[in-house]
Amino acid sequence: MTRTIAQRELRNDNAKVMEAVAAGETFVVTRNGEPVAELRPLRPGRRTFVSREEVAALATVGLRIDPHQFRADLDRAIDQDL
Questions:
Q1: CA–CA distance from 39 to each of 28, 31, 42, 56 (Å)?
Q2: Which residue in 3, 9, 44, 8 sits closest to 21, CA to CA?
Q3: Pick the CATH number of 2-77 from 3.40.1620.10, 3.40.190.170, 3.30.365.10, 2.80.10.50
Q4: Domain ranges of the chain
Q5: What is the pLDDT of residues 12-55, one digit of tens each?
Q6: What three-state secondary structure class fits 37?
Q7: What is the chain's Cα-based Rg?
Q8: Sheet containing 34-39: which strands, arranged edge to edge?
Q9: Cα(first)–Cα(last) distance of the chain, in Å?
Q10: How far apart are CA 58 and CA 25, in angstroms?
Q11: What is the pLDDT of residue 38?
């Protein structure tokens, strides 16, 4: 669930907002009514870096990728509204 919160509200209710984020909620922070940031929980165990060695090892295996399934997986994983 995504909620919108003004920067002033975030500053005044910081502890309450952080509890909500820890519980899984996402907030879009606004300044003067314009979105400026997104505050969301981190996904535990999600890797953000793959080493060069891992990529090279996968390339040598000859891994076959179904392009349609790959696109569907990307569409599910990436928020297209950003």
A1: 6, 14, 9, 35
A2: 3
A3: 3.40.1620.10
A4: 2-77
A5: 999 999 999 999 899 999 999 999 999 998 877 767 788 888 88
A6: strand
A7: 18
A8: 2-6, 26-31, 34-39
A9: 15
A10: 35
A11: 93
Residue 12 has which token pair?
């005044």
Which parts of the chain fold into alpha helices (H)? 7-12, 14-22, 52-61, 67-77
Provide the residue type at 53 as one letter.
E
The torsion angles phi and psi of 28, rounded to 5 degrees, stand at -100, 120
Q: Which amino acid is at 12?
A: N
Q: Which residues of 22-61 are buried (b: 16+ CB within 10 A; e: fewer)?
A: eeeeebebbeeeeeeeebeeeeeeeeeeeeeeeeeeeeee
- The first and second tokens of residue 67, run together, are 């392009």
